[in-house]
């Protein structure tokens, strides 16, 4: 009995090996020019147009002109008011404030999404806050109940600098938001609009988990903390971009439970596409019926083939579509 218990404990501490999920097929690859700060960190398909953000730029978001192989990022300037108090502890906030002059981007925009009315929503990792950018009028921070951060931290999330909110998705009606906590621990949370305040009716935390995950063998990297890099909502399901595992997973929007995953490692990690990095670089996700857009934040890394710009990949949807059960 003792040896069996020790065996179970050992298994719980071991890295999770990547499951063999079906491979998505790469259709096209698009370097992105014109992003002032580079560091593409989110994607959203809004009324047929792709929008993105950089975690180095606080005063603009970008529309992507897709008419040529190399996409041009067209900046939309925004006047951002001072961020609200979110309930993050002093130490985490001060780390972000100290590092921002060195890295650029005090707000650290990490994800973008939009509703059917055309409002865009950008999540600030540094402040655990969400900025609404309407089609007309001035941007404004959502009024979010501080219970969101309290519940997240009580579940082991948002405890570490630069490991806060990394992805965002909103429903078409614009009254429910999902947020992805990046790592150590990673998790999914949701808030709902109640008059002018977004609150935790029924609880904000959908799931929280820790542990290590083994990277695909092409990276030749040791196991890293499980992570989420972005979120997308499509056909009533949540889709998570899991950077270290190089996969997309479909999850239930009420619990975050995995229903099915797809790998994109085979085409993303060919020899010419490798970076001199032990970490995954996929940071952004958007889906439609025909496929997935995956954005690569290369930071200061240069690819093996010499490409220095951010990249967006287009992967075909799996056979049977994103709702396929088997």
From TrEMBL:
Keywords: Signal
InterPro entries in alphabetical order: Phytase-like_dom
Record Pfam families: Phytase-like
Keyword Calcium in annotation: no
Signal peptide coordinates: 1-18
Domain Phytase-like: 38-185
Name of the protein described by the UniProt record: Esterase-like activity of phytase family protein
The species this protein was found in: Pseudomonas kulmbachensis
